[in-house]
Amino acid sequence: MRSLLATLILLTMNAVFVQGQTKNPSFEAYINKYKDLAIYHQGVYKIPASITLAQGILETAAGTSRLALQANNHFGIKCKEEWTGKRIYHDDDAKGECFRAYNSVEDSYLDHSLFLSQRKYYVSLFALDIYDYTSWAHGLQKCGYATDKHYGTKLINIIETYGLSKFDKLKVTEIKPIRDDIYEIQISESFEKKHPELVNWRRRILQVNGVHYIQAQPNDTYEIIAYDAHMKLKRLLKYNETTQDHKLANGDIVFLQNKKKQASKGTENHVVKAGESMYSISQTYGIKVQSVYKLNKLKKDYVPKKGDILKVRKK
Questions:
Q1: How far apart are the C-alpha atoms of 9 and 139, rounded to whole Å?
Q2: pLDDT tens, 246-304?
Q3: Is 159 a member of any domain?
Q4: How many domains does the chain have?
Q5: Quick one: which of 66, 80, 97, 227 has the fewest CB in 10 Å?
Q6: Are strands 269-271 and 97-100 parallel, antiparallel or unpaired?
Q7: Region label for 314, one of left (φ > 0), alpha (ψ between -120 and 50) or beta (otherwise)
Q8: pLDDT at 201
């Protein structure tokens, strides 16, 4: 006959085993809600969807943590020196640590992808097979993503318990990214045929000079817009004749196509206003910066002054 102590130990072990095999409904709900977003980021940034989902679940207790609920922070990313966005303070390794706060969960997923793909600490991860979630999980721990010594093992357990590796094999074309904000869509037929993926886009698309554009929202970056538009960042920057370092202001024009060589018919001249630059003028009319100089036979060192009259179209 077993002793009472032995019986209690056995019952405890069985309970732990059963609990370990039982799937958590909140985990499954999180997976169903964000799997498309994780797959999309795998297609763009080459981070396994299974890893992204497992990190989101682990870092937020499946979306129920304070950081997730109050700051849309799904990956426990701290402020770091370069962060200029919103902040939230939370006890972690130390009391009152600074964490990044986002306008939406989608922005958190984007920042997570950029955080891993653009920091030197994680370069080794991208040499791994994208289907090898085990190496990615242990690699994240080795690269110092978290201080938890069992971080990699915990990610692997989540991936295997919920079968997340199946998402690594799906193609980005099979899903659509999610957005919380809804805007009116104004797309020409020709643009719609060339970019069918933007038909259901929820930002408002406008035109100037026959060139489609959107207006930047507060805290927008070219990375966020490129992600939203299913477009490579390099291409978006080329359309707007700018660099990734250029900070966007609310209402700035961001073109989704190449600008033209001159303004539309009926617009020949522009009277320079205070604070305008050759670049801002070119964005206003949907024409290339070089064209503004060429139309006016100006040298590159010319700086527009208030009251100057510039040609933006040939007569």
A1: 36
A2: 889 888 999 999 999 998 887 788 888 888 899 999 998 899 999 999 999 999 899 99
A3: yes
A4: 3
A5: 80
A6: unpaired
A7: beta
A8: 65
CA–CA distances in Å: residue 80 to residues 86, 115, 214, 224? 12, 11, 30, 19
In this structure, the answer to whether residues 65 and 198 fall within a common structural domain is no
Q: Are residues 41 and 159 in the same domain?
A: yes
Q: For residue 47, give both structure tokens.
A: 């981070």
Give, as one character, the DSSP assignment of residue 287: B
SS3 6: helix
What gap in Å lies between CA 310 and CA 271, rounded to an integer? 6
Instruction: Judge if 65 and 119 occupy the same domain.
Output: yes
* Residue 6 placed within a domain: no
The answer on 303 and 158 residing in a single domain is: no
- Residue 77: inside a domain, yes or no? no
pTM score > 0.70 for this model? no
Helix axes 49-60, 151-161, angle to 10 degrees: 110
Report angle CA 165, 167, 50 to the nearest 5 degrees: 55
Report the mean per-residue pLDDT for the chain.
Answer: 82
Q: Which residues lie below 8 Å from residue 141, measured CB to CB, with a gap of 6+? A: 148, 149, 151, 152
Among 174, 200, 216, which residue terminates a domain? 174
Query: What CATH number is attached to the domain comprising 304?
Result: 3.10.350.10
Instruction: Determine which of 47-51, 167-171, 296-300 has the lowest per-residue pLDDT on average.
Output: 167-171
Q: Strand 206-208: give its sheet, edge to edge.
A: 206-208, 211-215, 253-255
What whole-number distance in Å separates Cα of residue 290 and Cα of residue 133? 48
Same domain, 156 and 303: no
Residue 2 in any domain: the answer is: no
Task: Say if residue 9's pLDDT is above 70.
Answer: no
Per-residue model confidence (pLDDT) at position 23:
83
We report the CATH number of the domain holding residue 220 as: 3.10.350
Predicted local confidence at residue 264, as pLDDT:
83
Residue 178 identity (one-letter amino acid) = I
Cα 170 to Cα 156: distance, rounded to the nearest angstrom: 19
